[in-house]
Amino acid sequence: MSKPPFSITAALARISQPDGPLDADANAGGDGNAVVDQSQTALTTRQPRNPKATRRLILDAAFYEIRMAGFAGASINQILERTGTTKGALYHHFPGKAKLVHAVIEECLPQYINDVWLGPLDGVDDVLPVLMGQVDCLSGANAPELLDGGCPLARLASGAAELDESLRKRIDGVYRYWRRGLASHLGRGQFNKTIRTDIESSSVAEFIIATLHGFLTRPPSMRNSETHEAFAREYARYLNGLRP
């Protein structure tokens, strides 16, 4: 069963504008041959621009900055320092901080959901052990790097009161995407008879996401090995209750 498309990003065209034309080489004087020689030298030494790579670099740095500092605390200067790009390059791709924030929500957050939570379930007949393994790896060296500061989606959603209605709807759209995807995997488990058929897959998906959200929004000091073991134990008990 294929996952449904993410409604927000499907509705928005992902258009990367090309960088502006290269500046013409200045020449202070000399004969025509000198001009040709200098131009050829400049063309052979100048590094080609890659607008898509620059845009991706800025977007990844912004995602890191926002999930560490929140929307309000995110610093454009920190993003520039992390990427080594200029303000001109940033505003060429994202004309304003609001546009950059929108891109993070619409592109980075769904990708995070795919990479960490939904992707490992693809093509798996029995998803319950995989779901348990995802929680097991939250503590220790195998924890996804994206979760260093907690769940990015949970962290950003926790500050939703500071956001305008447009941003809140976008974040809610990412949750709906996660919920639909997880419910689809649970439904496949029901079809394969590895999960009870008397449960409502969308309700179970909602509960699992809320449970993970609650654990991952706790301060790091409250997510030590003892609290993780207690959480993992009760999470496993719940998952085992989904068996036929």
TrEMBL record:
Residues 52-112 form the HTH tetR-type domain. GO terms for molecular function: DNA binding. SUPFAM superfamilies: Homeodomain-like, Tetracyclin repressor-like, C-terminal domain. PROSITE patterns: HTH_TETR_2. Keywords: DNA-binding, Transcription, Transcription regulation. The keyword Repeat does not apply. Residues 75-94 bind DNA. This is TetR family transcriptional regulator. It comes from Thalassospira alkalitolerans. The lineage of its organism: Bacteria, Pseudomonadati, Pseudomonadota, Alphaproteobacteria, Rhodospirillales.
